[in-house]
Write a structure and sequence with these properties.
The protein has about 325 residues and is α/β, with parallel strands linked by helices. The chain is about 35% helix and about 20% strand. It has two domains: about 25-220, Rossmann fold; about 235-305, Alpha-Beta Plaits, CATH 3.30.70.20. The longest helix is centred in the middle third of the chain and has 20 residues, at about 190-210. The structure holds flavin mononucleotide (FMN). Flavin mononucleotide binds near residues 100, 135 and 137.
């Protein structure tokens, strides 16, 4: 086994981080409240944007958009990266969805929100998908609202939706992590009903002009986000590269990488720039992304699902 000592050391650090209890009491570290009055409904346009690596957040975003349409909104819905930020003012509602990565909202999403123009009182809402059961998801959703509120958005809602984790280290090695396996049926009908309820709730909030307050709590997992979990997890993963003879040059890994760390056709991975989101290995259709964990080759989400004959239940609205 390569780098065995390194692996054990980093594994111990991560194990300690993950074994800390999820909550550390009810201490509020941040209150997210409206900073400006809410803009009244004017155009009936809503915007639902998401960042999604393996499709869960996209699926929930698309369902949310479909339901908002049934409530009378004209909805623009897309991946964050495909949306051209121009006329944000024409929306009566802006909803941002993100997966929870490393107990937090990914930097990619945070940076994107920080670059937004002034939202001038536009109602804003968040949702996150997570692999849990406890993934600091409430705080991650709150972080999105916090940033949108700093842009003068008015917070109206936040929801968290659990599904099977797409974190490859959860099934690396001899056994699949128990909680990952237990949640392999998620999202299910109940999850989608919660998404539908969220759409209804948001429209009610807008109709009544009802803003909300949100609190970020001090949890042990929140504290883990302060000690660079990506840095430590990176110490567990080795030889991240693209195998030239397996690569079909489809560009999926380049498109999925939020750090511009992959170069094709040079088959180059800048492991320094990599943010270890596993978007490349999780989505490669040719199994050409190579990573090692504890001396074994890591399996991506796509291959893991196929190997175990797992499929994701689609909400009926999306066909
Ligand atoms: C790099 C990475 C880190 C993750 N970290 C967490 C986490 O800290 N807490 C959690 O509950 N789930 C975590 N997950 C699971 C994802 O949040 C979850 O599977 C999410 O729904 C994926 O969304 P997507 O399919 O839209 O990318 C992680 C997944 C990945 C790939």
């Amino acid at each position: 086994m390569k780098n065995r000592r390194d692996f054990i050391k980093a594994g111990a650090v991560t194990a300690v981080a993950l074994s800390v209890p999820a909550t550390a009491g009810c201490i509020t570290i941040k209150k997210v409240a409206p900073q400006v009055p809410m803009k009244p409904r004017e155009t009936g346009n809503a915007l639902v944007l998401w960042y999604s690596q393996t499709g869960y957040t996209r699926r929930h975003g698309r369902l949310l958009a479909a339901r908002l349409e049934t409530h009378g909104y004209m909805v623009t819905a897309s991946e964050i990266r495909d949306f051209r930020v121009r006329d944000m003012e024409r929306f009566d509602l802006v909803v941002i969805g993100s997966p929870v990565f490393y107990y937090d909202t990914p930097d990619y999403v945070k940076t994107w929100i920080r670059a937004l123009p002034d939202l001038k009182g536009t109602p804003v809402a968040a949702y996150v998908t997570f692999g849990g059961p406890e993934g600091n998801q409430d705080n991650a959703a709150c972080s999105i609202l916090d940033l949108l509120t700093q842009k003068n958005g008015v917070p109206v809602g936040a929801r968290t939706f659990m599904n099977m984790s797409s974190f490859p280290l959860a099934w690396a090695g001899a056994e699949v992590d128990k909680k990952t396996w237990k949640s392999r049926h998620l999202p299910d009908g109940e999850t989608y009903d919660r998404v539908r309820e969220y759409a209804r709730f948001l429209t009610e909030q807008l109709e009544t002009g009802n803003a909300s307050e949100f609190s970020k709590q001090l949890t042990a997992r929140e504290m883990v986000t302060w000690v660079a979990p990506i840095y430590w997890t990176k110490k567990l993963v080795h030889n991240h590269s693209i195998t030239e003879k397996e690569c079909i040059n489809c560009g999926t890994c380049v498109e999925k990488c939020p750090a511009d760390a992959i170069d094709l056709p040079d088959y180059y991975v800048d492991t320094h720039a990599c943010v270890l989101c596993f978007g490349c290995i999780n989505n490669c259709p040719a199994g050409a992304v190579y990573m090692e964990y504890g001396g074994d080759r890591l399996v991506g989400y796509r291959d893991f699902m196929e190997k175990n004959s797992l499929t994701v239940t689609e909400p009926e609205e999306l066909g």
